[in-house]
């Protein structure tokens, strides 16, 4: 109801201004324009106020005070426009941030679930560390930016350590096996040598008898 009343009042004032102008009462028309412009300023409608002040100057170019007010109004319009643009930019940034956060939460949940499906227990038990590592590397290629990638890298480092320990154990066991074989070989050679010497002694004793 108040908005309708304001619209009706503005319409009446415009009609009154047109009437003043037709009658040649420029001063009254200018005064009415001033009242209308002040009302627009009170409502922070700088664009409408600026239009009315320009009309006043077109009717009475000697009104230096109106020219100064118009400069201030134009400056206020520019400031208000800059504020609106900053608010719009801030709103867009906030929206993009919300979209990014929502996407990343979905991305991270999917990555966490995918990492949980990787089971390399059998591969490690069989000593196939390369295939176990490839599974985690495949995960890293799919989710390089996820927090779960840190855990995947830890798993790869753990597999590298296990592979190194397994290699060291195999090498140690190999050396031990070689040492056992060498010991057995030396023992067999000693037994053979002792047996051969015993046969020679028996043969020599038999010949002397």
Query: Mind telling me the C-alpha Rg?
Result: 49 Å
Q: Mean pLDDT score, rounded?
A: 85
Number of helices: 7
Strand content: under 5%
Distance between the termini: 150 Å
Helix content: over 70%
Q: Rough shape? A: rod-shaped
In the predicted model, the low-confidence regions spanning at least 5 consecutive residues are 1-5
The sequence of SSEs as H and E is HHHHHHH
**How many strands appear in the DSSP assignment?**
0
Structural class based on helices, strands and sheet pairing = mainly alpha
Biggest sheet: strands, sense, closure? none
List the helices and strands and how they pair.
Blueprint: H1 2-23, H2 26-42, H3 46-59, H4 64-116, H5 121-125, H6 129-142, H7 148-208
Helix pairs in contact: 1-2, 2-3, 3-4, 6-7
Structural notes for this entry:
With 209 residues, the chain is mostly helical. It is built from seven helices and no strands. It has helices at 2-23, 26-42, 46-59, 64-116, 121-125, 129-142, 148-208. The termini are far apart.
Q: TL;DR?
A:
This protein has 209 residues and is mostly helical.
List keywords for this structure.
209 residues; mainly alpha; 7 helices
């Amino acid at each position: 109801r108040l908005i309708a009343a304001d619209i009706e009042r503005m319409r009446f004032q415009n009609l009154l201004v047109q009437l003043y102008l037709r009658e040649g009462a420029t001063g009254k028309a200018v005064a009415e324009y001033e009242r209308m412009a002040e009302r627009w300023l009170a409502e922070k409608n700088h664009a409408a106020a600026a239009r009315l002040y320009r009309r006043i100057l077109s009717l009475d170019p000697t009104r230096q005070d109106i020219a100064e007010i118009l400069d201030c109004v134009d400056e206020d319009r520019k400031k208000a426009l800059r504020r609106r643009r900053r608010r719009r930019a801030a709103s867009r940034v906030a929206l993009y941030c919300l979209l990014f956060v929502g996407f990343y939460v979905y991305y991270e949940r999917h990555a966490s679930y995918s990492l949980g499906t990787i089971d390399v227990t059998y591969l490690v038990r069989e000593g196939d560390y390369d295939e176990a590592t490839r599974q985690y590397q495949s995960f890293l290629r799919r989710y390089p930016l996820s927090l779960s990638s840190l855990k995947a890298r830890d798993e790869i480092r753990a597999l590298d350590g296990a592979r190194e320990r397994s290699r060291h154990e195999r090498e140690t066991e190999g050396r031990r096996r070689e040492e056992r074989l060498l010991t057995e070989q030396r023992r067999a050679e000693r037994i053979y040598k002792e047996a051969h010497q015993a046969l020679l002694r028996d043969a020599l004793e038999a010949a002397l008898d």
